[in-house]
Amino acid sequence: MSRVPPWAVETISPETLDRLARAALEEDVGSRDATTEATVAPDAGAVGTFVAKQDLVVAGLDVAMHVFQAVSSRIGWAARAREGDRFKAGDLIASVSGPARGILTGERVALNFLQRMSGVATMTRRFVQAVEGTGAKIRDTRKTTPLLRGLEKRAVAGAGGLLVEVEVDTPGQIEEALSNGAQMILLDNFAPDAVRAAVARIGGRVPVEVSGGVRLENVRAYAEAGPDYIAIGALTHSAPAVDISLEVEPA
């Protein structure tokens, strides 16, 4: 495990995490986990260990913990990581202990949250690494999973802002936007060469953001064109879930 610099992430209240956890459990098992009740003795105990099956950046630990707490207050949780920590394949991420029935009931939902959020964080890290040294910063968009925006944006750890941002589709709209009070310019679907020209035209009067058509294989070209920010919808709408397993053994 290695640590990356602390992320400026928004706080998600315990009440919100509990609500998300309970809604996900209701969707997955409903009022009772009939399979677990039929196959596991009520007094059986277990210990479960979350293991990274690939190199990844972890996110979603607190919501995974809330899943188990929602199932049973007797389930203990011990994290070996914080949001944004990097892990190698085979590293231990967290562990749970307590009633076997409760651990198995919460297993799938906790993994779904952890794998999804860690997938977003891992995808983000790849984009950040691709533009290192250029001065451009990676940001996310509103293309998020319904009801999970807070978690996904925290996984991205994108810095927000209250600037008045104006989107332009052509170079000719830049001066109009600036003359009408734009405090940031969003260049939508500009090629890298067009971005370079637009950045020069704006001349540092306001920050510049780029969006549209940006992929991992071309993000460095966009970054080297000189924008302040690059917004990437793929961070949240196309990030694959990472491979994490929960290995459960009798206590």
What does this protein structure show overall?
The chain is α/β, with parallel strands linked by helices and 251 residues long. It folds into 2 domains: 14-129 and 239-250, Aldehyde Oxidoreductase, domain 3, CATH 3.90.1170; 133-237, Alpha-Beta Barrel (TIM Barrel), CATH 3.20.20. It contains 9 helices and 11 strands. The strands form 3 sheets. The protein has a 5-stranded parallel beta sheet. It has a 4-stranded antiparallel beta sheet with strand order 3-5-1-11, covered by helices on one side. Strand 8 (184-188), helix 7 and strand 9 form a beta-alpha-beta unit. The two termini are 26 Å apart. Residues 1-9 have low confidence and may be disordered.
Walk me through the topology:
Layout: H1 14-29, H2 34-39, E1 45-52, E2 56-57, H3 61-71, E3 76-79, E4 86-87, E5 92-99, H4 100-130, E6 137-139, H5 149-156, E7 165-168, H6 174-179, E8 184-188, H7 192-202, E9 208-211, H8 219-224, E10 229-231, H9 234-237, E11 244-250
Helix pairs in contact: 1-3, 1-4, 3-4, 4-5
| Structural class designation | alpha/beta
Q: Taking strands numbered 1, 2, ... along the chain, how are they ordered across the largest sheet?
A: 6-10-9-8-7
CATH superfamily assignment of the largest domain?
Answer: Quinolinate phosphoribosyl transferase, N-terminal domain
Poorly predicted parts: 1-9
What fold name stands as the CATH topology of the largest domain?
Aldehyde Oxidoreductase, domain 3
Helical percent range? 25-40%
N to C succession of SSEs: HHEEHEEEHEHEHEHEHEHE
CATH architecture of the largest domain: Alpha-Beta Complex
In CATH's first tier, which class of the largest domain applies? Alpha Beta
